[in-house]
Specification:
Number of helices: 15
CATH architecture of the largest domain: 3-Layer(aba) Sandwich
Helix content: 25-40%
CATH superfamily of the largest domain: Type I PLP-dependent aspartate aminotransferase-like (Major domain)
CATH class of the largest domain: Alpha Beta
Order of helices and strands: HEHHEHEHEHEHEHEHEHHHHEEHEEEH
Number of domains: 2
Oligomer: single chain
Length: about 375
């Protein structure tokens, strides 16, 4: 009798295991900890949006939409970008609806990165960037943001650009550090890229969460950068429905054409009734225009409570994250401190070292404050012991 045998499968991602987000969320659940680790809200989206999607389902809008997305939604996205950032994208050719921002970033990388090409990433960074580049056969070139401030080091960025550089990935507002790029930062980047053919992948999923009077500096608002950029955003982040996994990419025609070639073969298209519901909901801009004030109140509530602890608060300029330095509390490594905080204090966080390929240690952890006030209050009550 033949013995069943599974053939060996060489890994495309041999260095990738279970993400820290999955590990910490499981640990939080096991110990009944308040989960401020994984970055998603614990409250519902607007009932009007839910109703709009349900109405679309009941109206029979349940079959495949156009590959690039429902026209009404692409038009709404183009109108929003033009109103906020002054750049008009052609909704027919230059806006593509995606299965979340993570798919959008992977598709952009697969569309433009060939084996042997180099892609610059600024560390610390979102954990999908590196594996995406590896899947495309590219080489990751890691440039650290300045320790302590997490500001871009433009001299190091310029030095990292070489003849094989295909693209650079920029994320603002930034996950995990909660810093934001300014208009001057965009100008510095444009100056560096001007003599090159380097493309820009601009991850702007937290574009509507900027605080203290700042305005989001979108690559779409800078004509030179817009001409070479895939601009990525997320309906899930903006409308508190991260599980819907719907986002979009705005890019000039020649880039969008290549993006869609890949998009049509990795997802083809995206959930039809959700697209129709979003298009209807976006007629009113108030939900995204008021989002910064909504989250700034939560940020301020959370920061006020943390001020009573021995954590040192880092600035939170945008996104829904707050980083803290725990040097005055513990000598543990970041991962060990997060495990201790979860199991002994009852609050889960994410080690900043998880966002560095080499696990750079700074005794900094990241909290997510996209939670109900009651959730934040409970977390702060437990953290008050520190």
């Amino acid at each position: 009798m033949a013995i069943s045998r599974t053939p060996p499968l060489p890994s495309r991602l041999p260095h990738v295991g279970t993400t820290i987000f999955t590990v910490m969320s499981a640990l939080a659940q096991e110990h009944g900890a308040v989960n401020l680790g994984q970055g998603f809200p614990d409250f519902d989206g607007d009932p009007r949006l839910i109703d709009a999607v349900a109405d679309a389902m009941r109206a029979g809008l349940n079959q495949y939409p156009p590959m690039a997305g429902v026209p009404a939604l692409r038009e709404a996205v183009a109108a929003k970008i033009e109103a906020l950032y002054g750049h008009r994208y052609d909704p027919g050719r230059e806006i593509t609806i995606t299965a979340g921002a993570t798919q959008a970033i992977l598709t952009a990388i697969l569309a433009c990165v060939h084996p042997g090409d180099e892609v610059i990433v600024l560390e610390p960074c979102y954990d999908s960037y590196g594996p995406n580049i590896e899947l495309a056969g590219g080489t990751i070139v890691r440039v650290p943001l300045t320790p302590g401030t997490f500001r871009p080091d433009f001299d190091r960025i310029a030095a990292a650009i070489g003849p094989r550089t295909r693209a650079i990935i920029v994320n603002s507002p930034h996950n995990p550090s909660a810093t934001t790029w300014s208009r001057d930062d965009l100008e510095r980047l444009a100056t560096i890229l001007r003599p090159t053919d380097v493309l820009l992948i601009s991850d702007e999923v937290y574009e509507h969460m900027v605080y203290d009077g700042r305005t989001h500096a979108s690559a779409a608002s800078h004509p030179e950068l817009a001409a070479r950029a895939f601009v990525v955003s997320s309906f899930g982040k903006t409308y508190h429905v991260t599980g819907w996994k719907v986002g979009y990419v705005a890019a000039p025609g020649p880039l969008a054409d290549e993006f869609r070639k890949v998009h049509q073969f990795n997802v083809f298209t995206v959930n039809t009734p959700v697209q129709h519901g979003l298009a209807r909901f976006m007629v009113d801009p108030a939900p995204y225009l008021e989002l910064s004030a909504f989250y700034q109140r939560k940020r301020d509530l959370f920061r006020a409570g943390l001020a009573a602890t021995r954590f040192r608060l880092l600035p939170s300029e945008g996104s829904y994250f707050q980083c803290v330095d725990y040097s005055a509390i513990s000598d543990l490594t970041e991962a060990a401190f997060c495990r201790w905080l979860t199991t002994e204090v009852g609050v889960a966080a994410i080690p900043l070292s998880a966002f560095y390929a080499g696990g750079f240690e700074q005794r900094i952890v990241r909290f997510c404050f996209a939670k109900k006030d009651a959730t934040l209050d409970l977390a702060l009550e437990r953290l008050a012991r520190l």
